[in-house]
Amino acid sequence: MMSQILPILIATLIAGTPLVYAALGELVTERSGVLNMGVEGMMVVGAVIAFITMQTTGELWLAVMTAMLAAMLLALMFSVLVVSFRAHQVAVGLAMTIFGTSFGSFIGKSYVGMAIVMEPSTLSALASKIPLLGIVLGQLHPLVWLSWALFAGVWFFLYRTRYGLIVRAVGEAPSSAHAIGYPVVLIRYLCTLFGGAMAGVAGAYISIVYTSLWTEGLIAGRGWIAVALVVFATWRPGRCFLGAYLFGGATIAQLFAQSAGIGLPSELMSALPYLVTILVLVLISRNATLMRLNVPASLGQPFVAGG
Amino acid sequence: MPHTASSSSEYRLELRGIGKTYPGVIANDGIDLRVNPGEIHAIVGENGAGKSTLMKIIYGMVHADSGDMLWDGREVSITSPADAQRLGIGMVFQHFALFDTLTVAENIALALPGKQNIEILSGRIADVATHYGLPVEPGRHIYTMSVGERQRVEIISALLQNPRLLILDEPTSVLTPQAVEKLFITLRQIAEEGCSILYISHKLNEIRDLCHKATILRGGRVTGVCDPSLESPASMARLMIGTDLADYRQRTRSVAGAVRLAVNGLDLPTADPFGTILSSITLSVRGGEILGIAGVSGNGQQELLAALSGETRLARRDAIIIDGAPAGHLDPAGRRKLGLCSVPEDRLRQGSVPSLPLSENVLLTANSGGAVEAGLIRFDRILDFAERCIRAFDVRCPGPAAPAGSLSGGNLQKFIIGREILQEPGVLIVSQPTWGVDVGAALVIRQALLDLRERGAAIVVISEELDELFDIADHIAVIAGGRLTEATAIADANRNDIGLAMSGSRMEKEMADAL
Amino acid sequence: MRFERRPKPSTLMIFLSPVISLVLTASVAMVIFASAGLEPLGALVTFLTAPLADLYGVGELLIKAAPLVLIGIGLAIGFRAGIWNVGAEGQLTAGVIFGGYVALHFGPDGGLSVLPAMVISGAIGGMIWAAIPAFLRVRFNASEILTSLMLNYVAGLWLTWLIFGPWRDPAGFNFPQSEPLAPAALFPILVEGTRMNASIIFALIAVVMGWIFMKRSFIGFQLKVTGLSAGAARYAGFSVTRAVWIGMLVSGAVAGMAGVGEIAGPLAQIFPNASPGYGYAAIIVAYLGRLNPLGILLSGLLMALLYLAGDLAQMSLGMPSSITGLLQSTLLFFLLTADVLVHHRIRFKTSGRKGVTA
After folding, report:
1. What domains are there in chain A, each with its CATH number?
2. What residues in C contact A109, CB-CB < 8 Å?
3. Who has greater pLDDT, A204 or C41?
4. Per-residue pLDDT reduced to its tens digit, A47-58
5. Do C235 and B86 touch (CB under 8 A)?
């Protein structure tokens, strides 16, 4: 029994990790009132940059760093258009996704099909020696542990620090925050850049650790699932964290089906995460009161100072 | 309160030649202002005179194009609200700078500089609240609070920063008459303790009651500085609007006709946690009558208008009866066919689409009977309608092709009300007809309503301005907490009783009892 | 430097901003060419003109533009109403599935009714696929952006399953493809020597009908108001529900038809990726065309040119064909940026104020 559950647990944790990063990042962005629909594009860019860096230098953490920076660059472009120039957030986000996907496809052309040889992480090897938890920890890449730290950090930031309170206030009523004297534009920039950075890490994780190769369509809509995840979580970090594993589990439904002896077409299994996403979106969105009380009231609307 | 004259170096705040121009309009032009310590100084002017812009400049939200500001005799440059707060300027906004989903204490913690311990802060909030007689519970969420309570939070928040100048922007527009009195007691106490107060308002009798001095603005310029207690309302009004206040054309005591609008026991729950539930609303209006519905904002006015106009459809068909026909289930277009038109309170976000030309804005409601033929728009006809509306209601604008958003508040309001009146409705529902509108336009609008009444229509006017209702309504009822009182004839109505009824919501009543 | 809102949108910028974005995109293209070792200006000229060298090329342009224009018009109707249908790709695929079913099962028997049946069923397929997000939005207030997007992936997987399964080409050596479509299921060629077919006519009809709908019809006006101001739409009694249904169903139908146009046209067979991302490209086409039918016609032609140029670039310039997507989205980006100047202007202010002496 244990021997069956454990691999599935590990697989779920691994599959959910990119969603943890991307969704928590988007959560912070949306909490400040900015709707970033470009997460998918930023993940693609992060993935391809990380892969190329890893392929050329073999340095994992350097690859993650470059992925973060590349995604943050996209996020910066997005912020300039949407926060400073007050362009339409949805339109720019879509453009960002199409751009990121095309860009990734373009510069990744010569790397398609190449695989990275991943050396087992020394940290993980060390961790496997920890009693009890070691069995699980040892099979997880340090990036997975970091995602847990990220969750704790985001939660603490939003609910236990003054700056987190300010971010929430900005998302709720930016004109009020401005009237009190807070730099709304700066705060939105920072939150969007953070979201972009996390999307970059998510992409890097996918291309380096999770699949260790690069192809077109690698991200397969997980950036979009992350955006939906934030809605499903009603903008709360805890729900977001758990939801990421729920969806991560859906992406590896094939595994569950096999161990339970269910023989369904592989395409249907592959469609599961998307169908589950639709389902949970509907379940949450239909509750108008829940939405009204939790959605950052200014989400998606441009902020005009002195207006 | 007598004051000795002070020399220039002792003014708390002095403005010299402040100017601000926006594209197409001069908001402030060469404004001088002198405020003494501990003085309650009114900034008087009608809507559009430049008061708000001036206050935003003082508070650092807007940068002046020209002129100087002196604080305690020293020249300063205030470039942000943070700067203003550091000097000791506090502001209580007309539309509060509060966060609905946070508590009182969390809101005030955000407004104060530096990290705040919520418990200690809650204690300080309670102390200030008691000292100034402004009851507030630090742990409550803002969205559960009435407008009057929210204002108390704003005032306490400003007071906790030990201001030496407190700016209040139209504070009484959301208060019942009794609450206004209590506010004045608080303000006098604050002034006696040495804090100067800038009181922005267009309500002359309040200013005479409360303020030591008044600076009067018109068209962005200072037209006079006076001691309100030495002036008559007429003289101040003259400085404010430039001419004498015109009077309404004689209202003939017309015989009221049949009941044209009847609402029976309307109940309307709301899914919006920030909204108001309507309970057992009952009213009836005859042809040739105006029913005024008084009330402080946030007591269900928006929900009531939506229920009457058809924006919110009702389960019971006979909850609303228009000229004898059940209409509860009909949408706005259906009710318009029965002769019911409406004017919402927000002219920019509901009554019109600011980016579209006036001619297309006509199409929002005046779209039956010729404007649309075989599903296609007759542009010539809507243009014609728009022109007629502009002429009949004195709408100052470049023409029917002008975007609605380019009109001033008063002119846009005249256009929107005109659009509805030109459809010759049998029943007209209007919400806040003259909010934010200059005196001249307000007169035109009220006269238009009186004229429509003469032609036999039944009119409902929902308004926060008691004066307005006493001017034009035949009957008056009060909406509070989603409930409507019975209507009384204006001649028999007592302002004090109306004021008490307006504060019918639970919290306000408790406060009234506490004092 | 500050941004100020203009009192009225600048008419000059409305015309200038697409031009600016074209120029900027061309510059980006030249930079890409240069970094690949090519002579930038020459490469750009080759890039843009090579596809149009002969009649066949022009035919290819029109054939490529037709689905883009068709879908673009459908999307524009929804976008103007604030209905963000991002699922055109999936709706197109649904059209391929429904139309393909008719083609594979009734095509071989021949007959004049096959083609119309294909087109109609393709439209129905697209409408059904679009009806799902519409229903979820109207009934449950679920964001149509996310639901329609998710359905793109689902549709793609469904088609994949069909092609690897029941529709597999028995003579296809296990390649992912269906049987070639019977002649009765193919659009007839309009002009000798090209591959132009009836989908071009559909596109033109869509432009005309789109124009009448958007500019002249009352329903079009209602949708426009819904997109501009939710509050005004509610006040006026313009139903958001109806706007959602119209916006989604119309774009779904034309996307489905465009899908049929692909398999009954140039492809003549059903592949898992029947569309080279037309559903997404059409979003760019709609925006580039400023949600205006005539503008969409022009931007559709431009985007089609970029597609062809990208395909040829592999042969003539040695560039990967994904340069197309890159330039298309860059163009959109620059347009969104330049559009800012329509509503805002830049003010350079020298502030001569002293600091606060507190």
Report:
1. 2-111+141-294 (1.10.3470)
2. 320, 322
3. A204
4. 999 999 998 888
5. no
